[in-house]
Design a protein that fits this description.
The structure is a single chain. By secondary structure, the chain is of the alpha/beta class. The protein has helices at 42-60, 76-95, 105-113, 120-131, 140-157, 169-175, 177-187, and strands at 2-8, 13-22, 25-35, 64-68, 100-103. It has a single domain, classed as 2-Layer Sandwich (Nucleotidyltransferase, domain 5), CATH 3.30.420. It has a five-stranded mixed β-sheet. Helix 1 (42-60) packs parallel to helix 2 (76-95), helix 3 packs across helix 5 (140-157) and helix 4 (120-131) crosses helix 5 (140-157). The N and C termini lie far apart (44 Å).
Length: 188
């Protein structure tokens, strides 16, 4: 069995979903949203994302995390906020030793519906069929997170990725010191 955490990042509403895959069967474990729109301070929102994602990982013990990549829109400020939310979630996953995969919105929609331009409602309807579970269309951020997890499964990455798992940034850095140093030198 493999457990996948899917995240649809956001600074006002962050969607999440946990699915299990076993013998080519998918089962929804839990899905929902983390509401952050009651907080005024951007840093408080990021802190809450950190805390809640860490709680989810501790409670549900996923083996892998899949997250939606920020899309390029017209509003640069919105994209920056979204990128921060995504970065915090990825950092928490990394600290917890979770392999993390990122998928573009188009890739997610294509994977779930066969149409990269599908609407959120079309994606939710297809998820209902795939998982044989009714979706609450009032929580499209949660179904978006579920679509990220299902996309990851369909990409053949449902099992923990080959290679080494790390207990956090320090163990990763120590094991990959040469690669990191080479990349840092290349940037200079």
């Amino acid at each position: 069995m493999s457990r996948i955490l899917g995240i649809d990042p956001g600074t006002n509403i962050l969607g999440f979903a946990i699915i299990d895959s076993e013998n080519k069967n998918l089962k929804l474990v839990h899905m929902g949203v983390i509401r952050l729109d009651y907080l005024d301070d951007a840093h408080q929102k990021l802190g809450m994302i950190c805390t809640r994602v860490e709680e989810m990982i501790t409670l549900y013990k996923p083996e892998v995390m899949a997250i939606e990549a920020p899309f390029f829109g017209k509003n640069v400020q919105s994209m920056l906020k979204l990128g921060r939310a995504q970065g915090v979630a990825i950092a928490v996953g990394f600290q917890k030793g979770l392999p993390t995969f990122e998928y573009s919105p188009k890739k997610i929609k294509q994977s779930v519906t066969g149409n990269g331009n599908a609407s959120k409602e079309q994606v939710a309807a297809m998820l209902e069929r795939i998982l044989n579970t009714p979706m609450d269309h009032a929580y499209l951020d949660a179904s978006d997170a579920l679509s990220v997890a299902v996309c990851h499964y369909f990409q053949g990455n449902s099992k923990v990725t080959p290679g080494k798992k790390y207990s956090g940034w320090s163990s990763y850095a120590k094991a990959n010191e040469e690669k990191i140093t080479t990349k840092v030198k290349a940037i200079k």
